Amino acid sequence: MEVVLRPVHDSDLPVFFRQMNDPESLDLAAFTAKDPADRAAFDAHWARIRSSSDVARTVLADGDVVGHAAVYGVPGEREVTYWVDRAYWGKGIATAALRALLAEVPERPLYARAASDNAGSLRVLEKCGFRVVATARGYARARDAEIDETVLRLEG
User: Fold this and answer.
1) Which of 12, 19, 118, 120 is the least crowded, having the fewest Cβ atoms under 10 Å away?
2) What's phi and psi for 66, nearest 5 deg?
3) Structural element, H or E, at residue 50
4) How far, in Å, CA of 12 to CA of 103, rounded?
5) Going by C-beta distance under 8 Å and a sequence separation of 6 or more, which residues neighbour residue 10?
């Protein structure tokens, strides 16, 4: 399967909105928007991302929009994030997409955060060179609870 990144197009947003409203995906991601079903808030969020200095990319697998990946935040504290449609989990797409994003954004260090019980995401991050540097507790909106979060860093 060929995995590539490209700039986000307007036509990607309805696909992202659908993907980011999958209940199982939301539960696993844990740290989500206040109300993932609020389309106006979703559109405003993506308008801010696309007009900022953040690097946001659409993830394509064999030409299909399967998710997105981004680097955001202030220099020295920038983080990576990614989302892959649940139908494509376990196929190496998130790892390939994150590797492509890291090649495009050479800035280091970069950070990442994941729910500590999200083994798949932690595995993707570690395969891409991120190392655990801390754990924390945080409020996970998708679970309406405080949960453990793992913080990782990628050095130069």
Assistant:
1) 120
2) -120, 0
3) helix 39-51
4) 22
5) none
Q: Measured between alpha carbons, how far is 61 from 21 in angstroms, rounded to an integer?
A: 20
Gyration radius of the chain's alpha carbons: 15
pLDDT, tens only, 28-50: 999 999 999 999 999 999 999 99
What is this structure's pTM?
0.95
Token pair 């800035």 in the structure block, residue: 107
**In the chain, what is the greatest distance between 2 CA atoms, to the nearest angstrom?**
38
Q: Which residues contact 131 (CB under 8 A, 6 or more apart)?
A: 152, 153, 154, 155
DSSP state string for 12-60: GHHHHHHHTT-HHHHHHH-S--S-TT-HHHHHHHHHHHHHSS-EEEEEE
Say if CB 113 and CB 150 are below 8 A apart: yes
Instruction: Specify the amino acid at residue 15.
Output: V
